[in-house]
Amino acid sequence: MERFVPGEITTLTVKREVPFGYFLTNGKEEVLLPKNETEHLLAIEEPVTVFLYHDHQGRLCATTKTPKITNETYGWVEVADVVPKLGVFVNIGISKDVLVSVDDLPTLPSLWPQRGDMLYCSLKTDKRGRLLAQLATDEVMKEIAIKAPESVFNQNICGRVYRVIKVGAFIISDVGYLGFIHESQRRREPRLGEAVEGRIIGVKEDGTVNVSLLPRKHESIDEDAQMIYRYMESRGGAMPYSDKSDPEDIQARFQMSKAAFKRALGRLMKEKKVYQESGWTYTVKEK
């Protein structure tokens, strides 16, 4: 018989009962099934299907609860906790959360998943024998994806970030399209596991799509104008920026291009909400 492997679902036989659980066997080794890990009373010699994992003390044990992922299967799991320098823990549907190691996460902690984010994972055992969750590779994501038709061009898209690189982020949409967000098509860098909403700006021959998280021009004017006006209100109705300000300063403060800034500022001036004077912009009520 093969040795027990954490992360697998297997059928074992009840060998004996103890006050705190049942010892199961595969004919060679034994493993404990705690009584709080099964909803049924078991009889000696009864076969039982269990999932093998390490408890909080690092001991191999069994549960009759069905996990969301195994060594052989992938699934979406929720981030339950973030531990600096260690990684993030994901809820796989059993009593113990499983670690996604820091070695498998982005170098920048700001791009790590946060609690509530979702990751597409399976399980693995590392060289030290620890049961870990591992992120799906590009090849795995391609296997579950569907090709996008050309007709989806310019449509809105919702998805999850499953990989981040220096020049952008990869997502899979809620309907299964694979997409790429170039760094030029975002105001901030999305984190791994984050849910994002954008629009499709290109459909490739292989059925993948290019995605922009930037709003359409007519939408961005309203959004940008509101952002600028809220910023001015937070400063008492004045800001040291105008349509003559340096593009770098505007980008650093508002994460928008100078052209977008001027369009939004023009909207506010047309609506007589703001005015400019000596390189500053003021809300009209402050004049």
TrEMBL record:
Pfam families per the record? Answer: CvfB_1st, CvfB_2nd, S1_2, WHD_CvfB
Which residue range or ranges hold the S1 motif domain? 154-214
Q: Determine the domain of life of the protein's source.
A: Bacteria
- InterPro entries cross-referenced by the UniProt entry: CvfB_fam, CvfB_S1_2nd, CvfB_S1_3rd, CvfB_S1_st, CvfB_WH, NA-bd_OB-fold, S1_domain, WH-like_DNA-bd_sf
What GO molecular functions are on record for this protein? nucleic acid binding
| Assigned protein family | Belongs to the CvfB family.
Q: What is this protein called?
A: S1 motif domain-containing protein
